[in-house]
Amino acid sequence: MPSNDTPNANGTSPNSGDEPRIGRELWTHPAPETTQMHAFKTDISRRYGITFGPETDASASLWRWSVDNIPEFWAEVWDACGIRANRRFDNVVDPAAPMFPRPKWFSGAKLNFAENLLFPQVAEPPHEDAIAIIAATEETRDRKTWKELRERVRVYAAAMAGKVQAGDRVVGFVGNHFEALVAMLAATSLGAIWSGVSPDNGSTAVLDRWTQLEPTVLFADNAVFYNGRAHDSIAKLAEILKGLPSLKHVVVLEKFPAIPVDLSILTLSSDGKAWLEEEFLAAAEDPRRPLEFLQLEPDWPVYILFSSGTTGKPKCICHGAIGTLIQHKKEHTLHCDMKPGDVFFQYTTVTWMMWHWLVSGLASGLTVVLYDGSPFRPLVDGNGDAAMPGLIEELGVTHFGTSAKYLSILEQKNIQPRDRYPLKSLKAIYSTAAVLAPSTFEYVYQAFGAINLGSITGGTDIISLFGAPNPLVPVHSGYIQCIGLGMKVEAFDISGKNCERTNEPGDLVCTAVFPSQPVSFWGADGAAAYERSYFTTFPGIWHHGDFVKISPTTRGLLMLGRSDGLLKPAGVRFGSAEIYNILLSHFPTSISDALCIGRRRTTDTDEAVVLFLLMAPGHELTPELMKEITQVVARELSSRHVPAFIEQCPKIPLTTNGKKVEVAVKQILSGWDVKVSASVEDPEVLDWYRKWAEEH
To answer: Which of 272, 407, 504, 543 has the lowest tally of Cβ within 10 angstroms?
Structure first.
């Protein structure tokens, strides 16, 4: 360990005033032998007679054993992390099975996802009077015990029993609050499948997703409170209901009683009904029905998340019970060293996969913080920059998850939370949704102290992590600490060969089965869409769409952005088709065509959405039209979809078969050295985009 790079006790580097350097060592765990990862590694060594080298040794590490012995590894995780099952598995998985079609996992087992969260299988289960949930807003705090959580889920499940069958889709147009969690747990206790979308999304974005699911029950907030103001959601809900004829029950949660709810504007099919929450609960066929958990196959779907491609509607990704559960427990328990009594706070909405990662903390006996509101409220001395550090201090948060964008904002403003708060409870900060810049790594150690800064990556597609924290591995500036155990991640060059040893960047791929692969894609074309999404670039190999370097010395991951045409500003992952559909719908005569690109250069802290417009003959891009486009995108999708640049262009580059050349333009705008494919119909048109990139 280079002595001049060793962190001080307060987490700052003696050289922290130097220019940030990729690869600088910033932190090591002060007592790694006390961690659950160390105990697991020691137990595997003893049980299997293996002498492990350091985790940076690719050939002798625990990670290498985990990916070379997949059935044995995941069986050990089942026992070490604790899976509650009515019946134990007969077989983990066939290690020789192809990744697609997805093989079955833990066949023979019977379990229920909600039961594992409500009754965590841990060595010392939390007492029923311990705090399970802290529901916080910009203005309020509400603590719920394990007993109160279980009872509320029982009441919800009793009301839903008879109205919801196993396999039905139950959806939530809800904020990140206690009732959203309760509705999800009640639904999955009955074998239903949950899908949540935050009310800050427009009706078009919601319907693009939920019309594919044909949900039976919808829970919805009457209003959203954000940045000190309440915003009525009922009018938007009424628009959504018009496009969902399958709904039988709509349950309105009166989160803000001061805003009246007019149920008469909520039109359902002839046999459907709109309810206020308490009316719905009071109408239970058996109000005293005990809390029961339908025991199901391990791969039974529990969540449907959405990920957008460059064409068509968002893909409906179905995640199964055991894959979600065992991955999250592995990550929380081993990689994050979370233990019962710890307080876990991930800033998220219900739409994002990180909400699902957060609430799974219950399965490890954690106290989970659900925060609904702006990260810059409440104001502290008239300033919101210290709002989240203040909440960490107030609630005794031990593990805090946020976005790279949030941390970069604090860095740019040079906010120093420890000047205001001791933050003695804080053990770790997790950063995701975008690449964390080396300078922000340095800033976090200056501003928050000697914590485990875990830059993490994975995503909606796997509802878990490929790149994870690890208490046995140092934190190096700019790098994700390690590849997750059991995840056979490699970097492939364009020919499909591993380029890790040459220290060259490549596509992030996974070359062996893992349990959190989606169990399916919803819909008639689901199997074909599943295969197209991950297994066509490198046949039979999971292609994730990230550009990455794997360090041959530290085994850390250096993330270089998306390698495909998806956009990911502020961690909101969406496809250009969502923007194209809005333009086609609202501006069919004035806009002839468009190209929507995500731009992120090495000097940028986040990806920017750039929208190029080919105007129809006789039309020009005016300031008034730009304003109208911005307003429509914000209203029907969200404010995070709004382009940072809207530019008129002379031509849209196409391939010879008429497909838009999004990836090449993305690379040009991001400053990459692009070799134009022979499939580009008119390579010279890309010169205009090169010039634009130079000038902007």
So the answer is: 504
